[in-house]
């Protein structure tokens, strides 16, 4: 184990106060200086494709790679260990001391993160967590966008996948600024919605929790009261075995898009998609019920997709790293396996929270012994008065 790895548990504020390490490695005096990593062939003229890739990289990174990792760390005023913690949180690969892998923008970004800690705006732990959220979300977003653009080119232009990926390099420079503008716009809108959902309207959710949950809510170790739902496609495994790659991709995309739209219209949040299943939350039992019924109906009426099983449980959860945890989530997952295709199941306490709302009909089902919960009393949720969610 290296000395750096042994020190990885040290607090960042201790690293910030340390004298920055020199930009040149100690062992370089014994031999020639490291050779810069070349992105193109050592001799000859670059091909048009390589030139396009180099031009795109320069636009995306804000300039040519000129700095080694120790130079960036020294410029930001921290040790290489502290810099590596940030880069790992962002999801960057490991670079060696000899790799010329960074630009001045990398140094500015590193300084921005560290300055938040130095100013006391964020703790070291919070800075790493926030940075990791950015890295993980943007990584998934980039993969999603590239695949969507390639798929569109293959479909519209009738070209092979490999050719589409090469041609995308030439098209991206004209898209980057627009995509970046939309990203910043969406981030600000989502941040505002998150503040309203998680902070401003939190009191309403806590009050609603008293309708269907027993015990002293103030003493609960789980802070948020939410409706937690699962929607699971029926017979997905057998269907996927009979489909080619393109058809399966279209099915998954159709499923995800429809779920995302319904959950959004209902005022909920899609937490994550795992293959043939989506996990979502809403702020009140009624909102969760409306979303759940809309999902079950939408897939029953869909001409391409199979039906889905849906469950919803109202209770307390822990929200961390963009995901949710707790017994409420586990119970909702168990109920999904008990639901019949095209139906929605809730537990008895969730049914009690919805019992006085004439928009819903609650039909008790036979008791079930569920692993981890013992005997539970599922209740089928059906449409009562009203039209439910109105989808365009």
From TrEMBL:
Domain Guanylate cyclase: from-to ranges: 227-336
Matches recorded under PROSITE patterns: GUANYLATE_CYCLASE_2
InterPro entries cross-referenced by the UniProt entry: A/G_cyclase, Adenylyl/Guanylyl_Cyclase_3/4, Nucleotide_cyclase
Keyword Oxidoreductase set for record: no
GO molecular function terms noted in the UniProt entry: adenylate cyclase activity
EC nos: 4.6.1.1
Enzyme class: lyase
Pfam families referenced in this protein's UniProt entry, alphabetically: Guanylate_cyc (PF00211)
Keyword Amino-acid biosynthesis: no
Region annotation (Disordered) ranges: 1-42
Keywords tagged on the record: Lyase
Comp. bias intervals (Acidic residues): 7-29
Family listed: Belongs to the adenylyl cyclase class-3 family.
Protein name (record): Adenylate cyclase
Native source organism of the sequence: Arthrobacter bambusae
């Amino acid at each position: 184990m290296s000395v750096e790895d042994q020190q990885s548990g040290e607090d960042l504020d201790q690293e910030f106060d340390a004298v920055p390490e020199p930009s040149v490695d100690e062992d370089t005096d014994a031999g020639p200086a490291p050779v810069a990593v070349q992105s193109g062939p050592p001799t000859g003229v670059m091909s048009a494709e390589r030139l396009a890739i180099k031009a795109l990289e320069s636009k995306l990174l804000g300039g040519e790679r000129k700095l080694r990792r120790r130079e960036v760390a020294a410029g930001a005023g921290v040790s290489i260990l502290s810099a590596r913690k940030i880069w790992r949180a962002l999801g960057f690969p490991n670079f060696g001391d000899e790799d010329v892998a960074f630009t001045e923008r990398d140094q500015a970004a590193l300084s921005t993160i560290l300055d938040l800690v130095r100013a006391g705006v964020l703790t070291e732990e919070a800075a790493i967590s926030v940075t990791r959220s950015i890295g993980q979300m943007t990584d998934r977003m980039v993969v999603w966008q590239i695949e969507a653009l390639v798929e569109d080119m293959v479909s519209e232009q009738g070209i092979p996948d490999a050719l589409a990926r090469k041609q995308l390099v030439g098209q991206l420079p004209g898209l980057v600024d627009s995509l970046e503008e939309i990203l910043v716009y969406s981030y600000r809108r989502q941040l505002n919605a998150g503040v309203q959902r998680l902070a401003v309207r939190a009191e309403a959710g806590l009050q609603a929790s008293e309708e269907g949950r027993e015990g002293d809510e103030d003493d609960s170790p789980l802070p948020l009261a939410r409706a937690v739902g699962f929607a699971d496609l029926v017979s997905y495994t057998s269907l996927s075995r009979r489909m080619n790659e393109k058809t399966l991709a279209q099915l998954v995309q159709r499923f995800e898009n429809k779920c995302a739209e319904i959950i959004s219209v209902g005022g909920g949040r899609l937490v994550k998609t795992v293959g043939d299943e989506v996990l979502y939350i809403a702020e009140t039992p009624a909102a969760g019920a409306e979303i759940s019924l809309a999902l079950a109906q939408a897939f029953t009426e869909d001409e391409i997709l199979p039906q889905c099983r849906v469950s919803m449980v109202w209770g307390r959860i822990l929200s961390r790293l963009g995901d949710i945890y707790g017994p409420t989530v586990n119970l909702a997952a168990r109920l999904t396996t008990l639901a019949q295709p095209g139906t929605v199941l809730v537990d008895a306490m969730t049914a009690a929270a919805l019992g006085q709302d004439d928009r819903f009909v609650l039909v008790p089902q036979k008791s079930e012994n569920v692993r981890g919960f013992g005997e539970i009393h599922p209740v089928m949720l059906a449409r009562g008065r009203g039209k439910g969610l109105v989808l365009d």
